[in-house]
Specification:
CATH topology of the largest domain: Rna Polymerase Sigma Factor, Chain: A
Number of helices: 9
Strand content: under 5%
Helix content: 55-70%
Distance between the termini: 29 Å
Length: 205
């Protein structure tokens, strides 16, 4: 199914759910649970906490179904709602021990590890470590934008929804992120024109 058809299907499910079809909401839950769960883990790192936040999100949606309008991008809407829920709870101190020192409570401090990356060359593990370090040198917003683009396969428009910023800001964050990666001297010493980030064809070089 292409993206256009998937978006159309999502909108039909969303409309059906807002009219009281519990099965439609269940379909949305099953379709996007893994997206939400993995994104939530990138923000907090606590599996049980993230699962609770997802459950609360869908309970809130069901209880307020009659008040919800049409949604342009269902996946982006859900990711944005989860993002807000997780950050709100963290800011209230319910899981304050999980907050990394560089985490601003207004935005997640997504980090990358070697396991997140796929380098299609020999000695891939060493190179993955180098790439992860370079990604983690980006600003928090650049890291999040790259993560949503390359790991969640979101369009720039959808990323703008999730991060609650305008389209041009998304373009700027991703442009500056890849510019920084291309100019990273440490990467140039270990990789020649072949970085591929798992989950998408996001070529850095």
């Amino acid at each position: 199914m292409n993206k256009m058809d998937a978006d159309k299907e999502d909108k039909e499910l969303w409309r059906s759910f807002t009219l009281g079809n519990e099965q439609a909401l269940s379909c949305v839950y099953c379709k996007y649970f893994n997206y939400l769960y993995n994104y939530g883990l990138k923000i907090s790192g606590d599996e049980d906490f993230v699962k609770d936040c997802i459950q609360e999100l869908f309970l809130h949606l069901w209880e307020n179904k009659g008040k919800l309008g049409a949604v342009q991008y269902v996946k982006a809407y859900l990711l944005q709602a989860l993002r807000k829920n997780v950050l709100t709870k963290l800011s209230r101190g319910k899981r304050r021990a999980l907050i990394r020192k560089d985490l601003a409570l207004s935005e997640p401090a997504i980090t990358f590890s070697a396991e997140d990356l796929l380098i299609r060359e020999e000695k891939g593990w060493q190179k993955s470590t180098q790439v992860a370090a370079a990604l983690n040198d980006l600003t928090a917003r650049q890291r999040e934008a790259v993560y949503l683009r390359c790991y969640k396969d979101l369009s720039y428009e959808e990323i703008a929804v999730v991060m609650s910023i305008n389209y041009q800001s998304v373009v700027n964050h991703i442009h500056e992120a890849f510019k920084a990666l291309k100019n990273n001297e440490a990467l140039k010493t270990v990789i020649k024109l072949s970085i591929v980030i798992t989950g998408s064809a996001c070529s850095v070089f």
